[in-house]
Amino acid sequence: MSNSIEIPFSTTLMVRDTCLCLHVQRAARALARLFDDALRPAGLTNGQFSLMMSLNRPEPPPMGPVAALLAMDQTTLTAALKPLQRKGWVKVMENPRDRRGRLLSLTTEGKAVLARALPIWESTHAMIDGKLPDGSVARLRQDLQALS
Amino acid sequence: MSNSIEIPFSTTLMVRDTCLCLHVQRAARALARLFDDALRPAGLTNGQFSLMMSLNRPEPPPMGPVAALLAMDQTTLTAALKPLQRKGWVKVMENPRDRRGRLLSLTTEGKAVLARALPIWESTHAMIDGKLPDGSVARLRQDLQALS
DNA sequence: TCCATTTCTATTGATATCAATGTATTTAGT
DNA sequence: ACTAAATACATTGATATCAATAGAAATGGA
């Protein structure tokens, strides 16, 4: 006996259509592929581009605020820095004011890589802008910001 | 000599504020954490919940369409199925009509796990809905769909 | 039928992601 | 100054993600 616990197919369709988490994950994967493809000639992934761009500041930031800006776990940032350090694009140094902390900065070569990637970002982003209805991109950004 | 190639800080701020890819990745990470936390008592991550829900169909689907539905690489789906198979929640069988292919289905226990997770999804989603302005969630879904 | 092409999936290698945990350092309270 | 608590990162282990590649089976054209 024992009726097995079943979710109706109609519920499945409802969840698929309405789940915001699923929709965001889908879009995240699709956009990541799009930017990864575009940025490949520059030797960067979309995540590496965003991370390095966030390090292009007058003063080298510590890790915590950078992780918060990117809405990622601090351990994820530690891992993401590894390949960039290996390539000599990012420098991680001890914070003289707080020896627990690290300060992150782009190397000269890192800045050059980022500068070569920038026009690719611009054209890719313009392409997306063009494909979406006018104004929807700005609206989308606002809505997304409310989630993170 | 050689002036190093620098991107102005103002450009960095512009990219940070406008990059749709970054905004989507940020929201994706934040939402993933939120649902992962909520679903943890059910033993599922947000991705596993979405995948298993997409398998709750009258007829077991092959892998290709499932990967397309989730907008993920086919190799990602292969990997994502591994832990679910190990736990006995998903069954992967050869397609008798096409011996290259596989058919994916939930086991009885898988269906039970999914059924226990459903109320968690409902309450978590309702919580998000409540925190966002009226109507913005539906609009957001539409905009995201245009991207994937 | 035979063969080239296409389709469907798996494997490998690299990076991304987070939970759990540990270590070193700073801060705050006394 | 001393100590407990908080803070900033790193490490480990598991899963997620995709590119490149390879294998097997189906399909289509001659």
Automatic annotation (TrEMBL), chains A, B:
Pfam families associated with the record: MarR
Entry coiled-coil feature ranges: none
Single Gene Ontology MF annotation: DNA-binding transcription factor activity
Matches recorded under Gene3D superfamilies: Winged helix-like DNA-binding domain superfamily/Winged helix DNA-binding domain (1.10.10.10)
SUPFAM superfamilies: Winged helix' DNA-binding domain (SSF46785)
PROSITE patterns for this protein: HTH_MARR_2 (PS50995)
One Gene Ontology term from the biological process aspect of the record: response to stress
Domain spans labelled HTH marR-type: 17-148
Protein name: MarR family transcriptional regulator
UniProt organism field: Rhizobium leguminosarum
Taxonomic lineage: Bacteria, Pseudomonadati, Pseudomonadota, Alphaproteobacteria, Hyphomicrobiales
